[in-house]
Amino acid sequence: MAQLVLKNVYKRYDNTEKKLFGKKKAQNDFAVKDLSFECPDNSFIGILGPSGCGKSTTLRMIAGLEAITSGSIFIDNVRINDLLPKDRNIGLAFEDYALYPPLSVYDNLAFNLRAKKAPSDAIKTAIDRVAPLLKVDELLDMKPSALSGGQKQRVNIARAIVRQPGLLLLDEPLSHLDGKMRQTLRQEIKRMHREIQCTTIIVTHDQIEAMSLADVIIIMKDGALQQMGTPLEVYDSPANEFVAGFIGEPPMNLLRSVIVKRDGGFFFSFEGSDLLVKVPERSLPLVSDGQNITLGVRPVDVLITESDTSTPVPVAVYENFGDERRVSVRVGQEYLNITTTENVVYAHGDIIRLDFNSEKTHLFDPESGEAIR
Ligand code: ADP
Fold first, then answer.
1. What pTM value is reported for the model?
2. Residue 300 and residue 286: Cα distance in Å, rounded?
């Protein structure tokens, strides 16, 4: 187990060029910008964000595979910026399995311990402990070429934890696997983390993976931290429009609106639409007449109602997914998505009425994208 702290970490890849509109342009952007966070002992942290946001760079800096441009990384209060990877007590499992093809699974698992001149009975004890956790105990005599993708990734992760590292770093470990295998291995990684008591960081672009595995999620965009919180916090209280749109499937609706005052009450209004949505009581202190606001509401928090007090809107798209139905309606220039488990059937153009779960609406500043609370 180990505690990991990043303080104001920056990374710039020097001497790199990228092609921009056919011209080569020096890339001066930071791949990681002013990143600070803390992972307590034995925590499970997910680093989540779209491709290119700096997740792998962050992990590689923690592992010592990439130099840090500025800032500090501490493991158990020791600044490790200049420590070699082998001296950081870290276990690593990347997306590609990188197993040694001529060696058996047992010998792959034993490789690093043998390199450290561990006695063979200690190696056997370590492998006997780890192999059942990842269900590779039946595979020990096999060569990597005989294994499925899922089995290779189990061996890859088992190899990373066999040395009992203080910190386990997993970079997109499930992204090569098919849907069912991903789910099975996800559950096994979770069980394994409980058993081995090792601070673990998983890098992923898949919000389901991050939400289901991690105690705390770090969401990144363009090299910068957007929000750090428990899965519930980032889902229920997104810090900005980016997090709101990134977490949740289908994503949160983000509608440009103008506040209007009608009959003594305040409403969200939408350009090109008659729909008016009452501003909830708790948000009244945050709004004023004529203010531009982005209204965020998750598809599950828009309810289809029989009440004739709300504005009628025509159905644009109806989809039946078996366990849920998705309905999309046009609100001015934008579409509003609704998810329901009610057994409704609609055709294009059918008129429905909507009610917003006022406890679950979110307000964002349209300029900065930051949540207004
Ligand atoms: P992610 O893991 O979130 O997909 P990366 O950390 O791989 O993102 O990349 C972050 C940024 O750094 C991207 O713009 C990427 O093009 C750039 N980058 C990554 N590795 C290198 C490298 N070795 N040399 C130059 N630029 C790199």
1. 0.92
2. 24
189 vs 210: CA distance, rounded Å = 12
Task: Identify the residues whose C-beta falls under 6 Å from ligand 1.
Answer: 13, 16, 31, 49, 51-57
Phi, psi of 334 (to 5 degrees): -115, 165
Element (H, E) at 251: none
Q: Which fold, 4-244?
A: Rossmann fold (3.40.50)
Domain ranges of the chain: 4-244, 253-364
Residue 51 makes CB contacts below 8 A (sequence gap 6+) with 205
Q: Which two tokens stand for residue 206?
A: 């898949």
Over residues 302-337, the pLDDT tens digits come to: 999 988 778 899 999 999 999 999 999 999 989 999
Nearest atom (ligand 1) to Cα of 51: 4
CATH of domain 253-364: 2.40.50.140
Residue 223 CA: nearest ligand 1 atom is 10
Give the amino acid at 97: Y
324 C-alpha to center of ligand 1: Å?
A: 38
Q: How far is the CA of 57 from the centre of ligand 1 (A)?
A: 6
